[in-house]
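ligand=NAP
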Amino acid sequence: MTEPGLTLVRIQAAQVGHLDLNVVDGKFGILPDLPAVPGTNACGVVVASDTHTEGSLVRISGKGVGLRRDGGWADHALVPDAAALAVPEGTDPALACSFFSPAGTAWAAVHTVAAIRPGERVLVTGAAGAVGALTVQVAARAGAEVIGVVGRSAKLGRVPASAKSVLAAELSPEAVGGTVDAVIDTVGGPVLRNALGLVRPRGRVALVGYTAGRELTVDLADFLLAEVSLLPVNLMTRGREVAADADRMLAELVAGEITLPIERYGLDQLAEAVERLRTGEAVGKVALELT
Ligand SMILES: NC(=O)c1ccc[n+]([C@@H]2O[C@H](COP(=O)([O-])OP(=O)(O)OC[C@H]3O[C@@H](n4cnc5c(N)ncnc54)[C@H](OP(=O)(O)O)[C@@H]3O)[C@@H](O)[C@H]2O)c1
C-alpha cells in the first residue's frame, strides 16, 4: 500500500544528466530542500500503486521528481502517479530512462524549430553527444546533408555515420564545404560563435544547450547584415508536442534503426559517472544501473 496518488518504484536504471548536475551544484532555478536524492529520470518496476499495475515497467520523469522531491538515484523512489509513465515491457531500463530528452529535443530542434527541409545543409554541434547524435540522425532522415562537429578528435569516429564529422577547432567554410542553411547547436560558447559565421543569409540557428559556455557575444552590425535567426529550443515547454515522436523514436532505438550511445555505471561508480559527464568525456548518455 502507498499513499493515494503516489507510486512506489524499484529502480533498475537512473540517468545521470546535465540537469541533475546543475541541481547537485545548486545552479538550477528549482532546488530541493536538503537532504535530497537527485535523479530527474529513472526507470524501474512498480512495487505499489493505485494507478499503475504492480510489476509493470515505468519510467519516472517530471512532477518535481529529482527537483522538489526525491529522485531516482536510489534503490526505490516514491513518486506522484503522473510522474510514472508506462514503457513497453522488455525495454532496456537504461534506454527507457535516457531516450526521452535527447529524442524529443532532437525532433523539436529539427522539425519544429529549425524546420529543416530536404536537401538543406545542416551543421550539428556536439554531434557525438546524446542530443547531437540523435539530431544528426533525425536531420539526415529529414533529407538534410549533415555535418557533425565535435570538440575532441577522439570523438570524430563517434559521430553517426549519416554525417561528415569535423573538429570544432577546424571549423571553416573550407572544412564544411561552404555555407550551411541551419545550425543545431548543443554546445554554445565559442563553438556557437564560430558556427554562426557559417550560416547563409536568412539561415537559422536552433539553440539547444551550452555545455561549452553560457555566454555569446555578437557584433550587432554583423548580426543584422547576416539576417540569421537565433531560435531557442526548450523541451520543457515542448514535451507534450513531441511526446508521440519521442515514443516512436524509442521503438526505432529498440529496433536498432537509430542509435543512442549509453555509458553504464553501477551505483558505486556514481563519482566516475558524474566526472565523465562533467568533463565532456562521456559519449552519449550516462546511466546508473541498479539491477
Ligand atoms: N534545450 C533543451 O530543452 C535541452 C534538452 C536536452 C538537453 N539540453 C542541453 O543540451 C546540452 C547537450 O545535452 P546532451 O544530453 O547531448 O549532453 P552530452 O551528451 O553530454 O553532450 C554535450 C557535448 O558538449 C560538448 N562539450 C564541450 N565542452 C564541454 C564541457 N565542458 N563539458 C561537457 N560537455 C562539453 C561535448 O562534446 P565535444 O567533446 O564534442 O565538445 C559533449 O558531447 C546540455 O547542455 C543539456 O543540458 C537542452
